């Protein structure tokens, strides 16, 4: 995924919002080299407008020799013919002005095409999306959302999906799906260095042809032995094997969860209509912002959205400063489906919540990169129609 280099966090965020999900940023060219050493597959470096031209040229000259498959896109405050010529001589792939983010996105997309052509057809086989479902609170519906969303994403078998249970101490994906896994992520402990698709495949449990599950360990104490490196290796490997990887998470900002969120392309934050949950979700959003995780790629899901408890979706949006992307009502059918071991989307495909999960899946699949900036502050007087249009804009 593209890496942006810029010391100014506001500029880095603007660029992150315009580029494909999963982009990362570093603040200096000195930090870039160690970052690249850890990401041998990186296909493009975007040098932000606050990087000095001289430093940028040095990066281009060095990468041209050491990593010819990694393109450099120069973003400048304004275009200047002399600088353009110098940047091209140094090996930059494109030079674009900061005031047109569509041109930046276009340059990155061309760099991607170039790198795929260079690496051959194998490289383009799979570049699956990682979608995490997170909330700092337990019991709000994360597992329910993760399971139903994963099934919706299979689109009746046309897409390959893997559901990963990273609630490592108290994961309940397997029981929710009435699965009895013979292997779990526990069996990958210690295999950080040699984890590959065949090995990972042997740890998965089949739910349907199009949906596989990587179950959580059966004992809570195993969690301690699952390293952040293993978490990131698992997700990076699964990306190469599946169209979508859906991650259920623990209600905590522990190092495993943070690593999973760091590897995430799209993050669904689950909230309910109670003040303690909203307070914690607000803190979690601030933390994600501080850590530069998922900016522009967060979706707020309001579960039990029709509970008459004195707070409505509008208030939630005002409190959290972001729009609600999806709402699921409280329904005894959802709880009954969980208890019966058949998720609602499979048990009752026409149930309103099943439709809501399918709509969420469409939103995630169809939203073009960079447009999904659902993290904006809603204006106080925004009408319902306006909000509806913004929330549900899909494929353009
Ligand atoms: N919208 C809903 N209506 C009714 N029950 C729900 C709803 N969402 C979740 N539940 C139930 O609440 C319980 C907790 O949900 P779960 O998804 O396990 O939460 P979490 O993973 O956040 O701990 C489950 O029994 C689930 O069936
Ligand atoms: Mg759960």
Q: Can you put this structure into words, describing what you see?
A:
The protein has 16 helices and 13 strands. With 396 residues, the chain is of the alpha/beta class. The protein has two domains: 3-124, Response regulator (Rossmann fold, 3-Layer(aba) Sandwich); 129-391, P-loop containing nucleotide triphosphate hydrolases (Rossmann fold), CATH 3.40.50.300. The strands form two sheets. An eight-stranded mixed beta sheet has the order 8-9-7-10-6-11-12-13, sandwiched between helices. A five-stranded parallel beta sheet has the order 2-1-3-4-5, sandwiched between helices. Strand 12 (298-303), helix 12 (313-320) and strand 13 form a beta-alpha-beta unit. Helix 3 (53-66) runs parallel beside helix 4 (81-90), helix 6 (142-154) packs across helix 15 (352-366) and helix 9 runs parallel beside helix 10. It starts with a strand and ends in a 5-residue tail after the last helix. 45% of the residues are buried. The model is unreliable at 367-396 (pLDDT under 50). Bound molecules: adenosine-5'-diphosphate and magnesium ion. The site of adenosine-5'-diphosphate has 16 residues, from helix 6 and helix 13.
Looking at this protein, list some descriptive labels:
396 residues; alpha/beta; Rossmann fold; five-stranded parallel sheet; 16 helices; disordered C terminus; binds adenosine-5'-diphosphate; binds magnesium ion
């Amino acid at each position: 995924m593209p890496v942006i280099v810029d010391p100014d966090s506001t500029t880095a965020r603007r660029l992150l919002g315009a580029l494909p999900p999963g982009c990362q940023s570093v603040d200096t060219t000195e930090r870039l080299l160690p970052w690249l050493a850890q990401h041998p597959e990186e296909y493009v470096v975007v040098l932000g407008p606050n990087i000095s031209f001289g430093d940028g040229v040095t990066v281009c000259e060095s990468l041209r020799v050491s990593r010819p498959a990694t393109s450099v896109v120069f973003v400048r405050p304004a275009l200047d013919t002399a600088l353009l010529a110098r940047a091209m001589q140094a090996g930059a792939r494109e030079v674009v002005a900061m005031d047109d983010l569509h041109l930046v996105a276009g340059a990155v997309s061309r760099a991607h095409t170039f790198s795929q052509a260079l690496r051959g057809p194998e490289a383009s086989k799979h570049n699956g999306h990682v979608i995490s479902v997170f909330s700092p609170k337990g019991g709000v519906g994360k597992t329910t959302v993760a399971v139903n969303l994963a099934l919706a994403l299979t689109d009746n078998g046309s897409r390959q999906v893997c559901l990963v249970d990273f609630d490592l101490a108290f994961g309940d994906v397997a029981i929710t799906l009435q699965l009895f896994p013979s292997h779990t992520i526990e069996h990958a402990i210690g295999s950080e260095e040699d984890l590959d698709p065949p090995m990972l495949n042997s740890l998965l449990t089949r739910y349907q042809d199009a949906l596989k599950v990587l179950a959580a360990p059966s004992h809570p104490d195993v969690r301690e032995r699952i390293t952040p490196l293993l978490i990131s290796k698992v997700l990076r490997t699964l990306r190469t094997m599946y169209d979508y990887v859906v991650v259920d998470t623990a209600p905590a900002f522990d190092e495993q969860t943070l690593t999973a969120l760091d590897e995430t392309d799209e993050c669904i934050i689950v909230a309910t209509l109670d003040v303690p949950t909203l307070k914690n979700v607000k803190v979690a959003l601030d933390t994600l912002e501080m850590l530069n995780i998922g900016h522009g790629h967060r979706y707020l899901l309001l579960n039990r959205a029709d509970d008459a408890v004195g707070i409505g979706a509008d208030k939630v949006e005002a409190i959290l400063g972001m729009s609600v992307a999806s709402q699921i009502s409280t329904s005894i059918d959802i709880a009954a489906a969980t208890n019966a071991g058949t998720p609602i989307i499979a048990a009752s495909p026409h149930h309103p919540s099943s439709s809501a999960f399918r709509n969420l899946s469409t939103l995630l699949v169809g939203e073009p990169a960079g447009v999904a900036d659902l993290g904006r502050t809603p204006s106080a007087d925004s009408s319902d129609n306006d909000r509806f249009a913004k929330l549900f804009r899909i494929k353009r």
